Amino acid sequence: MVEEVRLHPSDLIAPLFVQDGDGPPHPVESMPGVARLGLDDLVEEARALARLGIRGIALFPVTPARLKDPSGSEALNPDALVLRAVRRLRAEVPSLVLFTDIALDPYTTHGHDGVLDASGTDVDNDATVEVLARMAVLHARAGVDFVAPSDMMDGRVGAIREALDDAGHSHAGILAYSAKFASAFYGPFRDAVGSAQAAGTRALDKRTYQLNPANRREALADALLDEAEGADALMVKPAGPYLDVLHALRSQTRQPLAAYQVSGEYAQIHAAARLGWLALRPARDESLLAIKRAGADWILTYFAKEMARDLAADPTLSRPNIPFQE
Ligand code: PBG
Question: pTM, whole model, 2 decimals?
């Protein structure tokens, strides 16, 4: 009775990895319980999530190496894997809210989120923004509800809004990855989508466009710029290490606020549980509850399905929260 916040399945957005072809699910080694899914399995999984009361899914394509190039041109292929996935989901599981990532890292040989400038090492902000705007229009045309620019280029939200409106997609929303930090916690995700292999390192240096973990004020300023440029919802990412940013942003915007509990946050809970050093479910529940308490309306988490399943059995999560009891 005295609990101030509770988790609900509709708070959760499930990130899903999509692979080409009709092969079996391909597990992500560093993310127990997570696999890349072919289109048939993806539709099945989406149905199962919808039945559990989850309202949103975020799609991340795994691009075959042969389709990658330095400019990420596959991002503008109207028949790209992620667009085929969106069309099928739109038709077969229409109740789900679909989010797709707008960034070039699944498509570039160097693994960066944009095209590089003449130096060959830095991302070219404005050239990238032009590509992202065209990419967003393709995604809206395929039927996605929200495009989610995760690239952190300056000015991309405004450019995407204008491109969407000009193309007749004024109803398509923008979830801006507004406060996305240059984080060590993205490693397992880069394994999953192959951006680390392409680049030859999991420690891809994105510090010229992602935020400095030391900077809360800069994060808030960036987020408010995204709002001013027309973002319909704002995101903080990673979630757990940046609850102060989430909390501060909650009091400065009236837009819905999302937090992304990223691959490394998921992996560390699983790794400790495997070693018998943490109890999986209580650690999971606490990590998600803390993100909601800090101010998130939506939580992107790889725990979404399991969490929704456990909430269906016990919406108050009142099972004894005693470590090592599993
Ligand atoms: C890239 C992108 C990343 C994630 C989502 N979109 C990784 C990166 O910036 O290299 C990470 C998500 C996760 O770690 O779960 N546009």
Answer: 0.94
